[in-house]
Amino acid sequence: MLLEDFKVYNLSMDLGKKIYSHVNKWKYFDKDTLGKQLVRSSDSIAANLSEGLGRYHYKERKNFSFYSRGSLFETKTWITKAHERDLISTEEFEAFIIEINTISVKLNNYIKTIGPS
Fold first, then answer.
1. Is the four-CA dihedral 106, 7, 3, 5 of positive or negative sign?
2. pLDDT in tens, 29-72
3. CATH number of the domain that residue 26 is part of
4. How many domains does one find in the chain?
């Protein structure tokens, strides 16, 4: 599989790009506290998927996919905190949650396909 054709990877890359764009507009304190954590966790989703795809053994690929899922859940927590602290609007929050949930379903489906049948 080519990384560029990997749907859940591409969705994760898009999510990370959107989150970075939002966080980049925040005040210094918000960026330094919540923003860095949010950007790091959202970037880790795609990073772990690509690292897993580059591994030889299916167990490693699956393990990195689990790391990716953990980063996805962490991103959801930081997005929720950003919304609670009025750093993103309700509309933006809901749109991010829809994207996160979509990635979650696709990632779980991908994880199920890894390994011997």
1. positive
2. 999 999 999 999 999 999 999 999 888 888 999 999 999 999 99
3. 1.20.1440.60
4. 1
